[in-house]
Amino acid sequence: MLEINTKEDFIIPFEKIGDDEWIERTQIILEAIADNSYATLETPVSDSEIDILEQRLGTALPTGLKLFYSTFGIADIGEILMDFDTIGRLSAIWANSSHGPSFTAKDQEYLPYLITFGDYLGNGNMFCFHEKTHEIYYFDHDSAPFLSKLFDTADDYIRSCLIFAQCEFCGEETDEEETEEWAEEIVEAFVGRAVIDKWHY
Known about the structure:
CATH superfamily: SMI1/KNR4-like
Strand order of the largest sheet: 1-2-3-4-5
Number of domains: 1
Structural class: alpha+beta
CATH architecture: 3-Layer(aba) Sandwich
Number of strands: 5
Helix content: 25-40%
Order of helices and strands: HHHEHEEEEHHH
Distance between the termini: 30 Å
Oligomer: single chain
Largest sheet: 5 strands, antiparallel
Number of helices: 7
Shape: globular
InterPro entries: Knr4/Smi1-like_dom, Knr4/Smi1-like_sf
Radius of gyration: 17 Å
Protein name: Knr4/Smi1-like domain-containing protein
Domain Knr4/Smi1-like: 44-160
CATH class: Alpha Beta
CATH topology: SMI1/KNR4-like
């Protein structure tokens, strides 16, 4: 069972999805998340399911995201990965509505290229990948600008989620407030403080 008593107990699942032992390290974290919520691990997504999704979207999934799906399925990573039926273009959500966000001119530069794949805790904020660059953008429905690039790759996003997810597994010698501080320090070293502030605050 995964237990966090010191900062060094956190598992860094990978630097890049596909690294040596990334499956073993990621499996430990995903099993702990599933056990904690009395759930079972998801079934890997088949190549044919991925092909059908890519054909519907008219673009390829980011390489790391595709490999994650084919290895661990639509897993609980501490945040919500969307079902394949739900993944789609962010702009299409308001295509037939006059009540969508008032996207800024800068937002409009990215909006046509963004494809949703993550629902941040079900609160209406979403993570998207850019179909050309595969960078990861955050849609924040609360305030303009509504779109912010947070991660260079889906690998960076998933790794950060899996690190933060370990905060719940406090040992007897610590508490969740302390593990959250450690997780922030670890993730900050990878992606910078500004990303954490936008994402978690």
